[in-house]
Amino acid sequence: MLSKDFTQSLVILIVATVLVASFSIVVLIVPNLVRTDEIREQSLAKPLTAIQVAGRDVYISEGCHVCHTQMVRNIDPEVKRDGRANKEADDIYEFPNLWGSKRTGPDLTNLGRKYSEQWQRIHLINPRQVVPTSLMPAYPWLFEQVLTGDDIEAKMRALQTLGVPYSDSEIDKARLAVKGVTKGEALVQYLQSLGQDTASDQER
């Protein structure tokens, strides 16, 4: 039985925390670093365009990831409804990942293959116009707020540093690609990209 002194020792707490953290790093992170090239070769993932990166930021800022997952689990009903289960290689360019855990709304992993851009616009402006029972709030103002693109190059440079294969030319053109686009339009472009890169790998 542990003594009171042992369980209340700050030194032991610090040592135990360091040991657990070190073990986690060795088990969870190091193998992925070693297998990075192998995972990249297997991956069908494509880097997002500048507008899609901006749209992803809108998706995050509006809290879409709180109610929607982007993680099809290897469970028959989910696979039948949403497509094949996610693979490790699907998310190599996701920083941060948006797998989520709460399914208030449907999973969006393959959303880009399900609806048109016009449907996405209508759904964002007034969800109940296309899904009468939807609980989702409306986001009409997103189509009124215009992006300047002033920060997109810095964001893409950061992603490039993390391993996303953007060329310097793509980054240099990013601001002009985003400038003048509304947040809603950028979000639609991001939503339409979901699942497009893995379309050829869907199990029938």
Automatic annotation (TrEMBL):
Keywords: Heme, Iron, Membrane, Metal-binding, Transmembrane, Transmembrane helix. GO terms for molecular function: electron transfer activity; heme binding; metal ion binding. The lineage of its organism: Bacteria, Pseudomonadati, Pseudomonadota, Gammaproteobacteria, Alteromonadales. Residues 50-195 form the Cytochrome c domain. It comes from the Bacteria. This is Cbb3-type cytochrome c oxidase subunit II. The keyword Magnesium does not apply. The keyword Repeat does not apply. The chain crosses the membrane at residues 6-30. SUPFAM superfamilies: Cytochrome c. It comes from Shewanella pneumatophori.
